[in-house]
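Quick one - first record:
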Amino acid sequence: MEVLEAYRPFEIQEVELTDWKQRPVKNNFFELVLIKDGKGTQCINYNDYTFNKGSIFLLPPLKCHSFALEEPTKFVFLKFTDSFFKSVNKLHIDRNEWFREASFILSNYNQLPGDIIKSDVDRSYLNSLVDMILLETRNYGEDSINLITSLMTSILEILIRNIKRTSYFDFDTKNSEERIIKMLMFINENIDKSELLKVENLAVVFMMSPTYVSEYFKKQVQMPLREYIIKAKLKLVEIRLLNSDFTLTQIADDLDFTDISHLSKTFKRYTGTSIRDFKNKGEYMLLKRSACTS
């Protein structure tokens, strides 16, 4: 296995395997996997998906994923690590915007098997971007840091664009109304803007009676609207606690909690543990899907 680390905030691996061996799992933001050659079956959360040359996946920070190889397969693994997101602000990038984009992927992507890319053009873009990053890592110099950061930013943009074209929610949307899917997208994209998530505003946006919004949401999602919003916020809290150097005050302000006390009490109520214990343990809780248990 060739491990290329051009810059500590991320890691690239290019490897050809004849048999899959489970790798150590860390709470990275996520990991992009590009199949350069080969074929087989991918398994995530006990769901299988056939892959071949050109397939592109996202791996969750969980242990329940593997690949069954039908022939020698060449992988490229691109890990977006915690220190990468902690240090991008030093490279003159708007950290809040960067974090919003990256967190959107991890908190909303449903971690089901299958190719994440829905556009052949975007697939071509990603292949080119990954190839450029590989070249830069092999010929690393100080001048490569900003370029690689820009390339990874472009990868994030493409991933987000494709995720928004598919169903990425924590419940079965196959038989759901288009309106509830749009409502969930609206909520997740505006999770840090409490004013926009008030029942009165949702009623206006989705042309519903204010008295019916909460009833409709619970019927469709099997969860009260307020609980869904809180849990969506707390998923982002988990991400920031484990993968950033944001202070509790910054996290509370950014996600519209009243103060640190409000954030801490809400976190403990829904996770059953304190923020301190959560950070010490270093494992996601709300971000782990129940589908990962057999």
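second record:
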Amino acid sequence: MGKTVLAIEGEDFVINGKKTYSEITGTYPNVHGLLMNARFVQGVFDDKADRARFNRFGRNFDPDRNTDDLIAALPEWYDAGLRAFTIGFQGGGPCFTIMNSTIDNNPFSEDGKYLDPSYASRMDRLIRAADEIGMVVIVSYFYTGQTPRLKDGKVVLNAVRTASRFLKDGGYTNVIIEVCNEHNIAHEHPLIASSEGMVALMEIARAESGGMPVGCSGLGRYINEEVCKESDVILIHGNWLSRQEYLNHIRQVKAWAPGKPVVCNEDSQDISKLEVSLRARTSWGYYNNLTKQEVPANWGITRGEDQFFAQRMAEGLGIARSEIPVEEQYYLQGFEPEMEYEGKRWIRLASLYPERVDYVEFYRNGELFFTCYDKPFYVNYIKNWQMDAIESSHEDQVWEAVIYLVDGKILKRTNIPE
């Protein structure tokens, strides 16, 4: 038995006999039993097709070092209140740079009966490291960008059994299973994409793992009654959704399957939705593709969005943390020297309290380039988790964000080319 023993009591998560966060003096009673989490799905990532192309962002990629770097970052996140993170056997898409269809990040053998030993070793190290410090790992089996590598339904069934037996044999006591990330878009496999098939796969995963709690997520706009009722942990995604739509999802899944914990394990950098989750007494999951899913990820709490999420999480839980000065609560993000890729940058206005912002005007070399009204405040906003890049260089362009607050104040943030 591990050091971190997870149990579920009604809607509450319990670790070592105590509701989560109840052991921390000063935390709010209404958050006890929640499981604040983040999407760290690339923690066991590799690419058999072309590993060298991930030598970027000022670092060379090595799969073992990638795992070790995440392990080293976990205590910092734990101190801010993070109690769980999602890791994917098939990772996730680096949606802004490299097409996932060109990546081979699949640890399952051709028949689905075996795990690549290197993936298994990295997953084991991560789960045990989390166990040492009191964290839960949401282990995701399938990612829709990689499921085409499973040739048919038989391989899918075998892979579920293989991954589940791996977890059982590991003797882990700090694991939640997510059978598939956004299962409803795995159209090449009806067994995964259909609710009926997923219910069967979840039952297999629960049995083969020795009774570990099981859930499955759908695309942000998707929830399903059958899947909710079969889940031990109802996993939802908040990306694509406004705050109201997100709350409506929470209300609906609770009505379908009352008395079960609801965990969002993927949303966006829009940390205003963290507040929606807390008020609805559900758990929220931070998703930042640009700092945490583009390989090689920087697993620490980086300046701007990561920093603001950690602060808001601690604040919402009642964990004491040094305040961020007012002048540092808005950050023009995307100009970090290492975050350029093939002459492209992803520019946005990170804010500690995005709900206090009405809209943002972005100026390039003194001319209005883009106006963004929706959170998070991206240049070339597409969805709340997606944006288009700017063909840009840090050296020859001056960008300014003019921030119009809901209280009428106007602030400015400018990048200063070096």
